[in-house]
Amino acid sequence: MAKITAALIKELRDQTGAGMMDVKKALTEADGDIARAKEIIRATGIQAAGAREGRKAQEGLIASTITDGGQGQIGYAVELNSETDFVAKTPQFVDFGKEIIEDVAKADASDADQVSKAPSKAGTVNDTVEEAGALFHEHVKIGQVARVEGPHVEIYAHRKSAEMPPSIVAMIATDEAGASVAHEVALQISAMSPRWLSREDVPADVVESERRVATEKSQAEGKPEQIIPKIVEGRLNAFFKESVLLEQQYVKDSSKTVGDLFKETGGKALSFARIEVGTGDDEE
Questions:
Q1: Per DSSP, which regions of the chain are E strands?
Q2: N or C: which end of the chain has fewer CB within 10 A?
Q3: Is 115 helix (H, G, I), strand (E, B) or coil?
């Protein structure tokens, strides 16, 4: 049996918000497998509503731009982190963001490593970031990076307050027919945080995990065995409606889905991305 260490308990508590005894019990049942322990916690309904999984205590902004590409348009978005919102909202930090996104677009960079190595006035973007850290007297770094491409690209940049730079950027690539609803869908992505474009894009292991959690939760609730499969399918469908963009209820008209919007135009959504300050992987 795996040893349940204090570090393992702390990691699971940080990710789920569950109490110490619940975490220890789940880890013991899962023989130290933290992914399985998280499933057990979800199935028993003890995960805290304010779970902090995947979040980090950092400020900053999201810089974004659209350029013309060989097959239409390309959208880029980069998260730039500072330690405080005081620095993030300064004109100098906003200008720093504009400089970085221009370098990213010129290099056609699509991940953090490519962004760091992209040419800039200081040498590379990584050099520019180091100079910014010295200028602002704070740790400054590159966070999440996204790139989408298609005949039409739409970007919506959301500010949580008037004095702050964009902290959420939603991008969607569509065909020409879908361009007419692209802005509305970008707003949807910003507000509703979908994870996948279509049901087919959801990884098989994620679906299996959700199915297992739904089954165990139904059993824990004492549902009759013969109706559990139907309940599980209902819960899986609810998961898809929450997590899959084309299956989400359209926020401005609950009688239709986002997929219905595209059907009405005869258009297609090709890909999307959403970046929010402070929601990437934790720093090592």
A1: 59-69, 72-82, 119-120, 123-124, 141-150, 152-158, 168-174, 249-250, 253-257, 269-276
A2: C
A3: helix
Q: What is the pTM of this model?
A: 0.79
Domain with CATH 1.10.8.10 in the chain: 1-46
Cα separation, 101 vs 78, whole angstroms: 7
d(CA 237, CA 24): 31
CATH match of 59-197+259-276 with 3.30.479.20? yes
Residue ranges, comma separated, of all CATH 3.30.479.20 domains in the chain are: 59-197+259-276
- Distance (Å, whole) CA 45 – CA 274: 28
Choice among 61-75, 124-138, 257-271 with the minimum mean pLDDT: 124-138
CATH class for domain 1-46?
mainly alpha
Q: What angle do CA 191, 195, 150 make, to 5 degrees?
A: 90
